[in-house]
TrEMBL record:
<keyword id="KW-0547">Nucleotide-binding</keyword>
<keyword id="KW-0067">ATP-binding</keyword>
<keyword id="KW-0812">Transmembrane</keyword>
<keyword id="KW-1133">Transmembrane helix</keyword>
<dbReference type="GO" id="GO:0005524">
    <property type="term" value="F:ATP binding"/>
</dbReference>
<keyword id="KW-0472">Membrane</keyword>
<feature type="transmembrane region" description="Helical">
    <location>
        <begin position="23"/>
        <end position="42"/>
    </location>
</feature>
<protein>
    <submittedName>
        <fullName>Retinal-specific ATP-binding cassette transporter</fullName>
    </submittedName>
</protein>
Amino acid sequence: MGSGGQVRLLLWKNWTIRRRQRVRFFMEIMWPVMLFMGLVWLRRVNPLYRQHECHFPNKAMPSAGILPWIQGIFCNANNPCFQYPTRGESPGLVSNYNNSILARFYSDAEELLFSDPEFLQVSRLWRELNAMSNFMDTLRTHPEKVSGRGVKVEMILKDDETLTSFLLRDIPLTESVVYHLVVAQIRPEQFAFGVPDLHLKDIACSLNLLERFLIFQSRRGLYSVRNAMCILTPQRLQIIEDKFYANVDFFKLFRLLPRILDNYSDGIDIHFWVRTVSAASDRLRE
């Protein structure tokens, strides 16, 4: 290629470079201008609105209490914004809802119930109920744990019982037989699944069946009761059974049954239950 062709080629290359530089320069200038024009257009289409100062309600942590914690979760679920300072921003306060219906109800319930001495005894009811439940479960699942232990007949009779006088006067039984009957212990494991389907006559005349239901202090007492009861008619035996149930103090029975399994148990004090439940009902109505 001659010198003239080289010159033309060089000139063409220089022109191409300058052209690219001009295009790049134009784009560098126009790009910010186009971006600015787009922002102006968006501003005109969607005009700005003035936002007031925002105060967001605080959300209490669980350590502040169950009620403030739950209120902070549910009452602030949409994260509201207020123009004025919220109550919870004050020093020493963690809740914005002390005047709410739920807060007032909780405060009133705490004042009426948990400050009442009678209502505070509900924990004792739970302990007694738990002791009775443990005794019944043991009786059903592991009756051998209470085998050989029972409740004395005389301990579960009413204070003004008429059973002993009835046995002495109307049957009549000797004082020795009546004594052996009332100091005998009833085996509770035999009644874990209900009253056995046995005839009273069969029980009265059988040493094995008598020992199955009663624990006598001596063999002499067992034989004395068997000999005295076996000669009675079924009708007489049924009257004795009815008279016995009529003289049982079930308040004492529920008090003594759990002690068969745990000597330190207080059992269930039905009188105390009635007083506590009555006091709690009055407070709840209030």
